[in-house]
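Researcher: Structure prediction, please.
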Amino acid sequence: MTDYLTTFTKSVTCKPEESWSTCFLRTIAKEPRMNCTNIYSTCRPPSGSAISDTKAYYGAWNIWSTWNYLSSWSMALSDIVAKNPNVIKDNAQPGDTDQFMPQNNGVQKVDIALSNMVHMLNKASEPADAAFLRFLKYVPSTLVYNATSNSGINIGNQLQSRLAVLMAKISTDVDSFLKLVEGGEFSRVFNYNVQTIENTFMRQNASTVSTSTDGGSSVDDSIAHIE
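Model: Predicted structure follows.
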């Protein structure tokens, strides 16, 4: 697909200020009204009946699949922040993923929090997770956060901002998009969505609150520090 999309970007004339992905969907995938450039775009799976060329369909599918992955995480984080921002604060703490996403000279970057949450969801067992975490290293964040002092709302907003930056990056820079999908992980259907992400973290948070014998509730020590 690398040669195919590279040739496309060099040979097709797009509209002024049109992203390569929108141009591709309009001219090659025959989806003139589809836009996958931001979290809340009108983006949907490509129609196999409308695209006869296998490479064109594969390209359109990967555009949609990467959008679906990033937007699912962003919208789930938004929902969690609205319902209980402490869930974000608790799960964004630096932990075992420091070995996967090491701190630079002890400075915590927002990618550490993001990668930690991906691992917390299902131990990053989905192929798309591995591709996404690999991509974070390719396009490192400069956004610093402090998981101890920042509120869950602030951390959640920073995570969503980071996802929006990544979305803009892959939709406007074909080389970055190809880096994200180079392993073929996004050609598969991954097994979670906005509701799955939200429910998993809300359930994990609920499991830390136990009911005492007198009918009251007690907070587990692991989250007692949360503001």
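Model: Confidence is low (pLDDT under 50) at residues 209-227.
Researcher: Thanks, that helps.
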